[in-house]
Amino acid sequence: MKLIVESSKPARAAAAYIRMSVFVLERGIAFRDEFDQKDSDNMVYAALFDGKRPAATCRFEAYNDHTLKVGRVATLKEARGHGFGRKVVSALEDKAKQMGFTHSLIHSEMDAIKFYQRLNYEITSDVFYEDGVPCVVVEKDL
């Protein structure tokens, strides 16, 4: 297992592979909604490799001067149940702490709330729709 957290073409390519598999092909989210203008070589991605194959990913963006926004968290179907999602989110949080961020927020799909609660996130919003999917904001201090 290898875990990278960086702004690089390999990290972006691994993230794109996983997100295409999970969000576009498995979940049916439109390509144009999944891949946005924020996806660039400057975006910080966490990517976990199981052997040579990308297995889990998420991305980092600054919400404000002290808050990290974690997004596009995904694990390949065949790699679920091994803690890979937790590992990429935790790695991204660690990177954010090194950069001086003290708070984290995530737009969580309703079926992922328990996953984030296990990572000590708390629901802080009412339900809203993002790309046609019901979500809530979850937050925690780092």
TrEMBL record:
The N-acetyltransferase domain sits at 2-142
**What GO molecular function terms would the record report?**
acyltransferase activity, transferring groups other than amino-acyl groups
The protein's matches in SUPFAM superfamilies, at most eight in alphabetical order, are given as: Acyl-CoA N-acyltransferases (Nat)
Taking the record's annotation, the residue ranges forming a coiled coil are none
**Which keywords does the record carry?**
Acyltransferase, Transferase
Q: Which Pfam families match?
A: Acetyltransf_1
Q: Which InterPro entries match?
A: Acyl_CoA_acyltransferase, Bact_Acetyltransf, GNAT_dom
Question: In which domain of life is the source organism classified?
Answer: Bacteria
Q: List the protein's name.
A: GNAT family N-acetyltransferase
Q: Which species expresses this protein natively? A: Lentilactobacillus parakefiri
Q: Give the source lineage, highest ranks first.
A: Bacteria, Bacillati, Bacillota, Bacilli, Lactobacillales
